[in-house]
Design brief:
11 helices, Rossmann fold, Dihydrodipicolinate Reductase, domain 2, globular, 6-stranded parallel β-sheet, alpha/beta
């Protein structure tokens, strides 16, 4: 019998459902982690939402108060899948109660809060993971491995765009995503944070940014909207590479498009989230691009689901990536690995928050802004 770990979770909305799926799938994957999750305690203010999630995924208890999953004696892992302004207090309460913690991205609405969440969690000694899910997409894991192997030479240029149309309808109701006090920013923190984290994985630290934001729908349900519906940014990396990052929730016709490209001195690689299992790679100036699939046996995560051989050559989907992420965390909690560098820690969440905030500063100031990262004392 495998050992188990009690899990508590705050938030039964969109991403809380996916985390629940990821937890439940652990005992079904080809190589289950040595710690199997038990879904003990779920909290969400919205009664129908928490009941739906409880019934579908089998959470033992469900209530409105986040203190139950964060502080309940029966849980040893707390997942924070709530809106951004609720990331700090419940996550810190759980860490102080000795629970390992996962927090959704962006780690916090602003860099100061993200720093506090990282530094105070680190002091407790618990395992912490920030849910930058792109790190668990097979093709992007392969992308990172190819860049790190030196195959495309020195990285000189990063470019990405993350496009959705979720905020284009002016009649769409006000939600926490449009409220600066809750979300911190709009497309910058929601979409940009993912690609900032990928830029850090594929290229290195961002040193300077210049950004513009756009609020297309300035009022929703009589509430003023003060966050960006879309942004464009240019970035200078500490290693001298340059980059562009753009994100939009008002890009008509785009469902969930995330393009990430890196040019090196010996080759270039392209990825698009709409083709989740593929990379396009050029190995030289005259080579042109060829498509490689990140689903062959031996490629990242194929062995996770399939029995190898020809069975190992099947595509993997978005939701399954959350199972990879949960498996990685449970393995680290079991003492058989570490969260970093494959997954993001709260330090990575904090560093992305500094870049988001520098973009917001630049939008306001009209100037290029430096990004300064704080470290932990002692
Ligand atoms: N990793 C990803 O790809 C990804 C994707 C979507 C969302 N997210 C992140 O996940 C978080 C949640 O996003 P979502 O899309 O699930 O939002 P959502 O609005 O669908 O769900 C949030 C849930 O939190 C509940 N809630 C709000 N305040 C509460 C409180 N005080 N106590 C208890 N419950 C409360 C709401 O009732 C709602 O059910 C955000 O930080 C978001 O940025 C990450």
């Amino acid at each position: 019998m495998a050992e188990t770990i009690g899990v508590g979770m705050l938030g039964a909305g969109f991403i809380g459902m996916i985390h629940s799926f990821a937890l439940r799938s652990q005992e079904l994957v080809r190589t289950p982690p040595s710690l199997l999750p038990r879904l003990i305690s779920l909290a969400d203010l919205d009664e129908p939402a928490r009941r739906r999630c409880q019934e579908r995924f089998g959470w033992q208890t469900a209530g409105a108060d986040w203190r139950a999953p964060a502080e309940d004696a029966g849980t040893a892992l707390f997942i924070n899948a709530a809106p951004n302004h609720l990331h700090l207090e419940p996550t810190l309460a759980a860490a102080r109660a000795g629970k390992h913690v996962v927090c959704e991205k962006p780690l916090a609405p602003d860099a100061d809060t993200a720093f506090r969440l990282w530094s105070e969690t680190a002091r407790t000694g618990v395992v912490h993971q920030c849910a930058f899910i792109f790190r668990f997409i097979p093709a992007l894991k392969l992308f990172r491995e190819i860049v790190q192997s030196g195959q495309i030479g020195e990285v000189i240029h990063f470019r990405s765009s993350y496009l959705m149309s979720t905020a284009l309808e002016p009649g769409q109701p006000m939600s926490w995503r449009f409220d600066r006090a809750v979300a911190g920013s709009g497309a910058i923190g929601d979409l940009g944070a993912h690609h900032i984290d990928q830029a850090r994985c594929l290229v290195g630290e961002i040193a300077e940014v210049s950004a513009l934001g756009k609020t297309q729908v300035p009022e929703r349900d009589g509430h003023r909207v003060e966050v960006d519906d879309a942004f464009v940014a240019i970035a200078k990396f500490a290693n001298g590479a340059i980059g562009t990052i753009e994100g939009s929730r008002i890009a008509c016709g785009y469902g969930h498009t995330g393009r990430i490209q890196v040019d090196g001195t010996k080759g270039s690689i392209k990825f698009d989230v709409e083709r989740l299992n593929e990379l396009e790679i050029a190995d030289g100036i005259a080579a042109g691009f060829r498509t490689i699939q990140a689903i062959r046996a031996g490629h990242p995560f194929a062995d996770f689901w399939f029995d190898g051989g020809i069975q190992g050559s099947h595509p993997i989907g978005w939701t399954e990536c959350f199972a990879h992420q949960a498996h990685h965390l449970l393995t680290a909690i079991a003492g058989q690995g570490s969260v970093a560098p494959v997954a993001a820690t709260f330090e990575d969440g904090y560093r992305a928050a500094e870049v988001c905030e520098a973009m917001l500063r630049s939008w306001r100031s009209g100037r290029r802004e430096s990004v300064t990262y704080r470290g932990l004392a002692g």
